[in-house]
Amino acid sequence: MNKNVLNIIKLISLPIILYLFFSISASGFGMHSLPIVVSQSMIPTIMGLGLYLMMNADLMDLSMGARTVFAAIIGGIMAQKFGVAGLVAGCFIGGMAVALFMALLYRFIKIPAMVISLGIVLIFEVAGAKLVGSSGYLRITEAEYFIGSYPCNIIIVFAAAVFAYILYYKTRVGSYITAVGNDEKMCKNVGINADRIKFAAIALTGIFGSLSALLYICYSGSITAGTEMTSMSMVFRPIMCVILGRYMRKQVECMPLLIFIGGISITIIFNGFVALGFSEALQDIALGMFLIIILGSRVITQSFSTWKEAKGRA
Amino acid sequence: MENAKIILTAENMTKSFGITRALKGVPLQLKSGEVLGLIGENGSGKSTLTSIIAGIQPADAGEIRLNGAPYGAQSSVEACRQGICMILQEKATFDHLSVAQNIFVGDEKRFGRFGILDIKRMNREAEDILKSIGITGLEVKKKIAECSFEEGKLVELARAASTDPQILIVDETTTALSQNGRNILYRMMEKMKRENKSIIFISHDIDEMMEKCDRLMVLRDGDYIDTIGRGDFSAARIKKLMVGREIADNYYREDHTCSYDKEVVLKLEEVSTEHLHNINLELHRGEILGFSGLADSGMHDIGKAAFGAIRLSSGRVCDKDGETVKNPQAAMHKKIAYIGKNRDQESLFINSPIKDNISVASLKKLSKNTFIPPRKEREFVLEWAERLEVKMQDIDQYVMELSGGNKQKVALAKWLGFGADIFILDCPTRGIDIGVKASIYRLMENLKAQGKSILLISEEMPEVIGMSDRIIVLKDGVQSGEFERDETLSEHALINCMV
Predict the structure, then answer these.
(1) ipTM above 0.90?
(2) B94 CB near a chain A CB, below 8 Å?
(3) What is the pTM of this model?
(4) What does the alpha-carbon distance between residue A19 and residue B329 come to, in Å, rounded to a whole number?
């Protein structure tokens, strides 16, 4: 069997093992949870696809959650006037506008992306709250949210993953983003304009931010505007997806698939813990442990084989 | 060759970095179909001059003409478009891009439309280029991160070949290449010569320069000194022109006796690592213990193991009191210093000033109630930078702006200032000109005379033979021979144990 296929099977076995483990150990977890788990993993996956662009260009972004919420609010407002078309267009207009705004700020102010992303969080959380008014949330109808609900959400994420794959691996801008993340000074020597490429990387995250906004508002049929940086908590799961994906890329070079595997694994763990009745604090501890074990497994394996080799020699 | 057409002329090239004048009105003439060697000590201005020609940095003054027309590339890409390509001394490949992507980086437009790349075609063409310059067995889909440093350099050669340059500048690339890699470069240079194209070649290896160049242009401290034709090549003359004084052919130790105290200051007992197997050694006070072997013999691991910088799978490293050296902190506590083969990665913070690099090991000594008095720190750094004669603007200059020899001086100043008793030096003269080389050898002799001990790991056999009291030869991670200092000791004897 092709080595890549074998490696993909190995990697896919991670969420399968987790799924089987929780199905056996938690009574509330089983086949019936599958659509929920899949649906819940779609948002971190799609946000992860965008975050990977930023992280690959050596930029840190904590604003993806705020951008998603803001774009979803714009989508929700437009859905009330233009139905499904308004919802889709609103999410795209909102997502792209904020991403372009952020990219322009980065290009011209030239301060670290993380600082800009914090500014974006503060500005667009308040802007979103103002747009939804005193109620604090927006509702869309079932006729509108079907477009981003299960199983349509899977199709959207699949299309986004294919687009991401082409973008990361088959385009000039994708190669340049990787090169910029590698060494900006060297980029200059080969004629790559690092500032322009970073601008493009941030702007392109708008596509994924828009799609995550669409899935986000459709997931529950409503959107709540949060302030005081509450949207930042949405970023951590996608960041974990990317970290896991980056770790697994030693096996297969296909980041969209790896981000998806990371996303679904983390979602299974969260849901599994809920089914086991873990408190929120315990869930966080267990998830942290899971990440450490997975990321540390290579070191543990290497140490074990070195020890075994030395023992063999002795 | 005498009547060959001049394709590139540079006149009155001037460049300053702060108060340091790197180039002082240097001229250059390059004929078609020739290899022009640029030779000079570290900091003589060779790389500055060629980087200006290659569009990497602008000159402060001066005029360059290419094929008779004014030339002033503003970037390396523009220079490349005009037919001038440079292979840099430093690494110039992107770790997370494939070999093929690295070969064509910056020139991807030809592989696609609307920004979408035809990766298959790119890989095919990369294979063709690698094949055309004689590189076999390098997978084009492989990422550079998975390649060796030498393979990365070969990719840079392929990148240069892909642009089909009229003038190729090779800046100290051969130090990173094995004989096989060098042969690939030499073949490429010969092919270019046959096609009436030209090469500007920079190397510190005088023998290599005399063998490969048609003319040699000598620079010293940013001044143009002389240009010598092939018929007038002589190592002694070149050295004299480079350094400005007579340099003896043999700049190693003049004594031929093995001399050191009985006291053992560092001991490796049954040490095994990934590349070493059951190594035992004793380093004595006032001894220079040399290690020789092929690049993959594991000898570079010896230094790291002795400094506690790599994990031992078995055995132990201990000091004169029998205490184990577990890690670099413990090694420093026992006054052990280490300068790695890869200076920029292992011995220096190249993105930091000279001041931080020299004082970093001695901060404990310099600090007063947790705080580091700035004046005391500056005085300390200045003293050591001056003692080592580091060529610099001031101690706030970034190490990345220094030449190879001066970087090495900074690394040495750090450990001398620290007051180390044991020096582990892995390839201490790698990529360094003869002037600095000679000064490093004198420094080693002085340290030995002071009763300090040196563990010298080197890929240059004359250096190991010339400087060591004892030499241990490694083969496949195992000790395959040991020799004492002797006038009759030859490279041949060492080679017999290596292969």
Answers:
(1) no
(2) yes
(3) 0.72
(4) 45
